[in-house]
Amino acid sequence: MPLSQAQQAEIEIARAARTETRRATVPALEEMLFTALPVLDHGFVRVIDYMGDDAAVVQAARVSYGRGTRKVSEDKALIKYLMRHRHSTPFEMCEIKYHVKLPIFVARQWIRHRTANVNEISARYSILDQEFYLPRPEDLAAQSAQNRQGRGDSLGTDQAALVLDLLRDDAERTYRNYAWMLNEEEAADHDPERPGLARELARMNLTLNTYTQWYWKTDLHNLLHFLSLRADAHAQYEIRVYAEAMLDSVKAWVPGCYEAFADYRLGAVSLSAGMMAVVKRLLAGEAVTQEASGLGKREWRELMVSLDRPEA
Amino acid sequence: MPLSQAQQAEIEIARAARTETRRATVPALEEMLFTALPVLDHGFVRVIDYMGDDAAVVQAARVSYGRGTRKVSEDKALIKYLMRHRHSTPFEMCEIKYHVKLPIFVARQWIRHRTANVNEISARYSILDQEFYLPRPEDLAAQSAQNRQGRGDSLGTDQAALVLDLLRDDAERTYRNYAWMLNEEEAADHDPERPGLARELARMNLTLNTYTQWYWKTDLHNLLHFLSLRADAHAQYEIRVYAEAMLDSVKAWVPGCYEAFADYRLGAVSLSAGMMAVVKRLLAGEAVTQEASGLGKREWRELMVSLDRPEA
Amino acid sequence: MPLSQAQQAEIEIARAARTETRRATVPALEEMLFTALPVLDHGFVRVIDYMGDDAAVVQAARVSYGRGTRKVSEDKALIKYLMRHRHSTPFEMCEIKYHVKLPIFVARQWIRHRTANVNEISARYSILDQEFYLPRPEDLAAQSAQNRQGRGDSLGTDQAALVLDLLRDDAERTYRNYAWMLNEEEAADHDPERPGLARELARMNLTLNTYTQWYWKTDLHNLLHFLSLRADAHAQYEIRVYAEAMLDSVKAWVPGCYEAFADYRLGAVSLSAGMMAVVKRLLAGEAVTQEASGLGKREWRELMVSLDRPEA
Amino acid sequence: MPLSQAQQAEIEIARAARTETRRATVPALEEMLFTALPVLDHGFVRVIDYMGDDAAVVQAARVSYGRGTRKVSEDKALIKYLMRHRHSTPFEMCEIKYHVKLPIFVARQWIRHRTANVNEISARYSILDQEFYLPRPEDLAAQSAQNRQGRGDSLGTDQAALVLDLLRDDAERTYRNYAWMLNEEEAADHDPERPGLARELARMNLTLNTYTQWYWKTDLHNLLHFLSLRADAHAQYEIRVYAEAMLDSVKAWVPGCYEAFADYRLGAVSLSAGMMAVVKRLLAGEAVTQEASGLGKREWRELMVSLDRPEA
Lengths: 312, 312, 312, 312
What we know:
Chain A is an alpha+beta fold.
């Protein structure tokens, strides 16, 4: 359960409040607002606030005075044009803010995206909750044999059980010792005779699957860049599920941008000069082999996969 | 007149529309929304959209689940604390978007602030309007004798009139020639026999006081940094008036942050180690002179001005 | 002539000095160091400083202790892999600094790239030189009929001569009036009876083809992104020639990265999901038409151009 | 011991190589180049590369053609002026690159500074070494009673020993289980019958005091901002010691900038409008109390500390 009852109640109160605004409003995203979309065993993604909509992209591209009176089809065509030609600045004119609960090792990947605003709970100041990520048995996979940076087949039921026991035991023990070192007054087993260790030190005993939380805010252009990398099949599963939850919010928020993004980014393929030369030879009817292609083995395989010819 | 009737009508239509939202809404800023605050002779600043309010800063600092139920006085104290100790990230959680019309030479100063999103009208694509900035006679000042980067006394009525004639004549002639080179079909004096010069080339004939426009979006932290530099007495008058108009919008939007900003930034003074040493000697009753202060002349003068002792 | 004799002499003195260093040094770039590569009629690009080389990219990707002892071929393969899979951070570990002299309207395009460090000469503080860009007659082109943001055929000798006269006259007159308003003591026609207008105001009378200068520093990743946009055929000619001069410096500096960049960026094509579907149908031997392709006319044309089938 | 013999040997080889360059070179920093400055029990900071020197700041501020021929005293005065008036862009023209080995919980604080380039070793790809931070007994302090985000008195010998045992045991056990789950072929106890868990998953069992490494590159302006926050007395000890080691490298690299930084940043005090009012009243001879000061208790105390009147 990612949320306590008190937290759920706070969210309900926030959802109940309505005010009137002159700003662009997106009913489909309003519907999701504040609600926690569950991710992994204890994590979530919540949309906290947003600015702009599909029309705001168009409006910025045209530097216009009003909301614009052109046809919806023209707006959609312009959004597609902007996306295809990588005119990124109009997409920067929309902004979104999320509240995310995620394991620390996922947070460490995520934070590499620098063009965002972040407020994380501080373990110098607060005590982290006893919540840590434990994968589902089917997600416990062996190291990939092909890819030094990825996972292969599932471990199997017995091995998975062993691994899970280790992960659980270590997380529980290190947390117990964290709490013992803190020796907080509020704790059930508080010992008034013993000084508590400073929080900024005690936290070092926690494992990397401990959950943390942050507010994370970014513009639509940078969000789409983040999602194109993190919703990708090469991304680690544990961050990909967050990206997928966020993709749903993008779809509700800016459907026109989402569609263009799906076509020109998520589903697009970048072919190098060498790959393009091969495609042209194939189209001319030549039977090109890897050896004769001028491409390395790895690049050849990537091209063949893109062309749905994995056997080649 | 910064706005045409058609533009004013578009704004009125946008202002008339209201929707319901779950997001934080600020009535005082809603009241200003879309309206053009006039700046200089043809320029303006319009608030186009915003995200967050004073409470959103507090909420992000606490990484909280709801809007928070604490007392207003606690929230205000926290905002002050964050501002005083330069905890800037919670202020990044609010965002605002402006539409600004401004002379090109002002735009060139402004754009140096890189942590913002910008969409400017493109003179490769569009034809700029015949509007250029002409200072009021009283704003035409001589080069400062003290400061190589500033202005001194007003030129006086006669000289100002001469200068204004030159500025007006040159701007009008260069614009006329710009339009002649473009030879647009829509123009009254269009000559179908003559090819029009590409817009991306013709624009080079315009003077730097020609007005341009952009959408400019930034977060509250970076906006306050911009305003602390550009609403300062050392900033050029022509950008300062924009900063002052924007300060009004900040006051309406986030009054708690504005108050803290006024106290800890706008009204604050940074005293160097050397300056602090002098202040302590003065407080101890010593009659310190510049020569005995260890400070350079310029720094001494700056300190004395800060202490309201300009005669010292 | 982009450089005065005094400037040329300063550059020669700087070039003559040598010191010993433990840092990675690139002889081919050292050879170019400080020299002005002429661009347009009065502009230039000069490499002022650099940090890193091809090996520094590899070293950062491996977070290694020494300069690395692996084979050159392994390093090259790693660079290609990083470029192909958009692992951009190792390329950020090289840095380069340029001194550029360029027309103001080009500077305004350039500055949109925000991830760079810039120091521009200040016309609040200094007096700009009387130098402005005048295109060669063959570069004076008409507005493109196809592309609202581009140029088409050349104007022709007679029209070009008319346009050049206008551009020259207006630039000379506005500069003359700029100098008159400034009324600098050093000027030949200085009038001691008349106060000079503040520099920060007088500059507004200059035209956008006036030359300015700046120091511009960025990392290799962001430089390559800049070059991929500005050395592109769709970029305005007047900025493209700067990008091309800079490409030469990149080739001298990091030949391995340059090669990967040429293959995977400059020469690469991004095909949307819809375009890839068409390519697969073509490869399967189907005779696809635009109408049956599912692509819009514009996208279809772009795809056919990429496949060297412009007639389709 | 932060370095293995093999690593030390690699560093020595890199240090032994010299080449000739036309670039600005700083002998005092060359002397430190590549050498590991030890920090904490297993960490270090190594300067890997640098660009620019004090003169490069001046050169950029003047946008000059050569290295400049003015007096050293003029250059120093200009640097001070730039620092005092927060003209930050010339300081951005120098760049430095470090290799840092640091505990993960320190890395998580550090990475919040977004204006830097980072390459961290990937625990998806590599296996982390068995090295974790264990504080010296005297650094194990209790939670501060005054400051919810800080540490107070030392725990005392007995308590410190208990805490250290816990930290060591937990780090060793979780690492042992990490290695068991990985079941690498190279391991002494490798079990060929058992599949190894993917690295990207196994890492989640490590504690936050495990050491990681990165290449970290930034410009001088952003470095000084980082150091002003992290070399400050309010920063956590474990990051402060890194900042202090880096301060030494800055002192060697750009002594003129360092001096200005020490005076106008490190040793400077920012007094709010309210604080300045109190200082003026004190200077006028008034006996101001907190109650009559208009300042809150906390702000009053901060002011008194700044004025060396802690008793007030």
